[in-house]
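Notebook entry, structure prediction.
Reason for the run: the old model in the group folder had no record of what sequence produced it. Starting over properly, with the input documented here first.
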Amino acid sequence: MKERLKRMNEKENYQRWLRCAVSDEDLQQELREIAGKDEEIEDRFYRELAFGTGGLRGVIGAGTNRMNVYVVGKATQGYCQYLKNHFEKPAVAVAYDSRIKSDLFARTAAGVFAANGIPVYMYPKLMPTPSLSFAVRHFGCSGGIVVTASHNPSKYNGYKVYGPDGCQITTQAASDILACIGTVDPFDGVANMPFEEAVAKGIVTYIGDDTVKTYLDTVSKESLLPDSVPKDIAIAYTPLNGTGISCVPQCLTQNGFTNISIPKEQGSPDGRFPTCPFPNPEIREALAVAIRHAGEVGAELVLATDPDCDRVGAAVKVNDEYVLISGNQMGVLLLDFVCRMRLEKGSMPQHPVAVKTIVTTKMAEKVAAHYGMEIVNVLTGFKFIGEQIGLLEKRGEADRYIFGFEESYGYLSSTAVRDKDGVNASLLICEMFAWYKAQGKTLLDGLQMLYDTCGCYTEKLLSFAFEGSAGFHQMQGLMASLRRCPIEAAAGMAVETMTDYLSEGTGLPKSDVVQLHLTGGTVATVRPSGTEPKLKIYLSACGTDCTESAAVVEKLEKYFTDWIHDNKNCT
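New structure, fully documented this time:
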């Protein structure tokens, strides 16, 4: 009976959308095409697109479980109510990336803000996500949004929400906003003003080039390379058809790195990502075009920023091959480089602090200990790193912050931005590359020196896709199974302790994460993705050499792959 009522509600909702969702012909066409297809209707209407600390993210299309102008309008109306509840005179900043319909969704949101009497500062062109975080603080806004789905495939789009501190919203703020959204009808309850009218009335103000210059000047202040080090390195850079093209080349050139080559097929914004189906700098396929281009032009360093330019991946030329550097490896290299340069310049504060996420390599703790630095571990999500900067700032200790990073290729050395910053990171990586090159070394040589000091760490991220409503329930079942029947040993290694972050006593906000601490310091962390229909398992092992630690990770990969298969139908 319950299942039959659920399907009736889905079909009723579908019929209502067929009648009312008329402002976007793409939606009408899609709705007509799925007529009579129960599974297609269920997938679009079995739930509302989840709104959490990452805002919204989903497949572009028709329905409550898709990204479209009605879902964006409903979310924005709820956000407006939240802002009015918490701020006397709220204002917001808005940015968007190169994805399909990003400009439409940004204008839709701006029109809703305007109709609710909330002033909007909006970038008139594609800009990186970190520039939105900067704009929120620069203009003294109560919050902001950026329309992006980060590194997801082209069929996705999203809507990240920021607080007045320039961080993505907290768990409590997300809960409060969600409560407001829940009262909004997507067709009858959303106030709207045509975008052009909002601009003409001055409710929407375009952010000028002077602010972009201020942002780039602020990033440039993070430069650490001594003037004596040559900057003539050959760089191949790809924005992966995203927003990085608007800032990264300009920032590098401004700081003396002028030998930059960009593959033409990825240099212009294009939300279809025609040469890179998965624009994720974590995977080699995303860098394939840039690596080929680097070989053609003789570049020594390859950089790739994801479409909203908050993350950056890199590869370095070693002999005749380009070797990728992982997010964990780059993070510890940059942490060490920033500390070295700050000490050399005499700018290292007393009691320095670095921040990382709980799924990021423990090797960072070894590097930090070498420099007498405190490491703060936070939940997955760069907003928690930004939050730590804000807490230091409140205590008058913001200068203690040195560096923050997460394994998923996000880095930040600035306190002016409160989100991971691919522009800031690109500059630091180029400077670090040049510094090692001046000594006749590569970044891999630098990494080996750290291994010699700290031990050799190998990490690997396993991602298991669970699409649709059935997949969503399977993920819930797997997490429940892990808690109900805890793993006692994995790949021959005993589980010494299990940390359930849904429980009290972790010192962190509750989160759907389970972390297993195995023999020899090996760690496995299991969590559902907050932005994709995936279950993620993070593996980490340390050995006397990389062969040893890699063998441990390989065994764990097989164990957890089998565990997923054996428990996939748990409820």
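Summary: Confidence is low (pLDDT under 50) at residues 1-5.
The old model has been moved to the deprecated folder.
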